[in-house]
Specification:
The structure holds 2 protein chains of 2 kinds. Chain A is an all-alpha fold. Helix content of chain A is 76%, strand content 0%. In chain A, helix 3 (53-85) runs parallel beside helix 7 (144-168). The longest helix of chain A is centred in the N-terminal third of the chain and has 33 residues, at 53-85. Chain A starts with a helix and ends with a helix. Chain B is built from 15 helices and 10 strands. Chain B has helices spanning 2-14, 16-22, 35-50, 61-70, 84-92, 112-115, 167-178, 186-194, 207-214, 228-232, 263-274, 276-284, 299-304, 309-314, 320-337, and strands at 25-30, 53-58, 79-83, 96-97, 124-136, 158-160, 201-203, 220-224, 238-240, 248-257. In chain B, helix 3 links the parallel strand 1 and strand 2. The chains are: A mainly alpha, B alpha/beta. At the A-B interface, helix 3, helix 5 and helix 12 of A face strand 7, helix 9 and helix 15 of B.
């Protein structure tokens, strides 16, 4: 397409310069704060951060919730995407529209909706008490379960859309061929569908994991102080303690976790396809 | 040639470019809250009066203070609205100037508590609010802040997170009620920590509370008076508590940026904001409780705001120096006892 490599580089230069000045440089300056305590370059801010029990608890909770939301959204996402790609064109369009619809609604509004649904007088508790599973409404709000549900609902559409795209690019004959050769449905999924849709899973998984890690409003409203997450802790450090070093440490941890998730998912997918 | 030059200069002065160059500009930094109303009631009338242009920046206190610090050498903002504690932080950081109150015609009309909240002459209060407990009067009775922790009530209580504006004042009053009143708020935070699993939530946004009370998720919560109007519209009986330890609250103040080239215009704007007319209009719209003692309000507005000399005098505000010196410690104790 281009005459030479220099021409391509020249075309990319304005965007690269813009991204460097407006995004990369400020982020680098912010992140460097965490390595420059006491006048020199040091890791003491990081060792100090992880030496506190609360910080370790919050880190592990954020990591675990991110993994859980990603894993469950992958399971639901495959089922939903598989069902949608097998619909006739008209139905497929409508279902994709339904999946996309929540993305057009503010996360704040979607989170507040969960307060109604999960409340003492909400539909979930009405079903639970109505069917006799519990004599009293359960406390579902302001728990880790509520945060999990809120995050799952927030990011599931991203996983479904990534997997729909991946499934549509898969050869149409692959599944019937595997079935004819005697594979059961689990084998079809594990040995055919998963390797052929790994790119979609990597993209969806990265988006969901990163989104779950960095979401602020949903954990703050549905969990609050009781379910402190890394991003709520970072907000506290900036807005209350005015401690930009700790905030920088948390930001760096979040970025590293996001990149690590992407690399890990890619490796897992690649390793699967080589077998 | 000379005539031609004079004509050119006259034309330039009359052109829009010339007019813009001559127009005075005042840049203010304020809370993002109710900006449409502020534009109609404060900004536009002031622009019409001063023949100047007002540039309005919004953001939270931290962002605004960080920006003032970054532009210290060449200030962009001329006047800012901040909390009492942030005003003291700005003062300690050398970001603001003393206010020449002799140039404020409305200064003498302010309640005493608003005249020099931090005692350093660097700020003037423009609004304050009471913090007390909104509660379901058919379900419970609140006579003391400590009633919130009673076993029969505690599982129906929402308490403000320490990171919110209402958190430290509410903890301060709880400490008074429990006889554990120290600046580090350790006593009330520990008491809350012991009941953290019972308490419904430690809320981040007061806007959540009306919905939670409507759903019977909670029966009581400490709130700022500015949130009260929403509760009065519920179809359940909600009362404003008058605990025996009293009410607490907070105050927002106006400050002048150090080195601003528009201090006279900023003082003119400050005076306009503090005037009886402007303060009355803002109060009748239920935006801000008046700091001007000459403001007379309708019953409806008075019932929904922090109003009157007696109320102003009765508020047990946390001194800014204590808030500032203990903020990080409060957060650490809170996270250790409540956030684990």
């Amino acid at each position: 397409m281009f005459q030479n490599r220099a021409e391509a580089l020249a075309l990319a230069m304005p965007a690269a310069v813009f991204a460097t000045l407006v995004f990369l440089l400020p982020v680098a300056i912010l992140l460097s704060e965490g390595f420059r305590t006491g006048g020199g370059w040091t890791l003491s801010a990081y060792t100090g951060f992880f030496s506190e029990t609360l910080n370790r608890t919050v880190f592990l909770r954020s990591f675990r919730l991110g993994l859980e939301v990603t894993a469950v959204s992958a399971v639901i996402g495959y089922a939903a995407a598989f069902a949608i790609v097998n619909l006739p064109p008209k139905g497929k369009g409508r279902m994709i529209g339904l999946v996309t619809l929540p993305l057009m609604i503010s996360p704040v509004a979607r989170t507040y909706a969960w307060i109604v649904i999960l409340g003492r007088t909400g539909i979930v508790n009405e079903v639970i008490t109505g069917l006799g599973f519990s004599p009293e409404p359960l406390r579902l709000l302001f728990t880790e379960t509520a945060v999990f549900i809120g995050l799952l609902q927030l990011f599931l559409p991203l996983m479904i859309l990534s997997l729909i795209s991946a499934l549509e690019n898969m050869p149409r004959d692959a599944i019937p061929a595997a079935r004819v050769l005697g594979a059961n449905w689990f084998q079809v999924f594990w040995k055919v569908v998963l390797p052929l849709t790994r790119e979609g899973l990597v993209i969806g998984g990265t988006l969901v994991f990163t989104g779950s890690l960095t979401a602020y409003i949903t954990p703050a409203i549905l969990g609050g102080s009781k379910v402190l997450m890394l991003e709520t802790l970072m907000y506290q450090q900036v807005s209350v303690a005015n401690d930009f070093v700790s905030a920088s440490v948390i930001a760096f941890i979040l970025i590293v976790m996001s990149f690590a998730a992407n690399i890990l998912l890619k490796r897992l997918a690649t390793a699967r396809s080589r077998r | 040639m000379k005539r031609a030059l004079m004509a050119a200069a006259a034309l330039t002065a009359l052109s829009p470019l010339g007019a813009a160059a001559a127009e005075r500009t005042l840049t203010i930094s304020v809370y993002a809250f109710a900006q449409d109303d502020f534009k109609a009631l404060v900004y536009d009338p002031f622009e019409a009066q001063c023949g100047c242009k007002l540039v309005v920046e919004t953001g939270n206190s931290v962002e605004r203070l960080a920006k003032m610090e970054a532009n210290k050498a060449n200030p962009v903002v001329d006047l800012a609205a901040v909390s009492m504690a942030d005003a003291l932080a700005a003062s300690r950081a050398g970001l603001i100037d003393k206010i020449d109150t002799a140039k404020l015609t409305n200064f003498s009309k302010l309640y005493d508590v608003a005249k020099d909240p931090n005692g350093d002459g660097m700020s003037v209060g423009y609004t304050f609010y009471a913090t007390s407990i909104a509660y379901r009067s058919d379900k419970m009775k609140i006579e003391s802040w400590a009633d919130l922790l009673k076993p029969e009530y505690v599982s129906h209580v929402a308490f403000p997170n320490v990171t919110t504006n209402q958190g430290p004042p509410a903890l301060h009053m709880l400490g008074l009620a429990l006889g554990k009143d120290t600046p580090d708020l350790k006593g009330p935070i520990e008491a809350l920590g012991e009941k953290k699993d019972d308490i419904v939530t430690f809320y981040e946004k007061s806007s959540q509370l009306v919905q939670l009370m409507q759903q019977e998720e909670i029966w009581a919560a400490p709130i700022g008076r500015f949130s009260w109007a929403g509760f009065t519209k519920l179809d359940v009986p909600v009362a404003w508590a008058t605990p025996r330890e009293g009410q607490t609250g907070g105050m927002n103040v106006l400050v002048l940026t150090k080195g601003s080239k528009n201090q006279d215009l900023a003082l003119q704007f400050m005076d306009f904001w503090l005037s009886t007319d402007t303060q009355t209009k803002l109060a009748e719209k239920l935006i801000d409780s008046p700091a001007n003692s000459e403001v007379k309000l309708s019953e409806a507005a008075a019932n929904n705001l922090t109003y009157g000399e007696e109320t102003a005098k009765s508020l047990k505000l946390i001194p800014s120096a204590i808030a500032l010196d203990n903020r990080a410690g409060w957060l650490k104790t809170w996270n250790d006892k409540v956030g684990q």
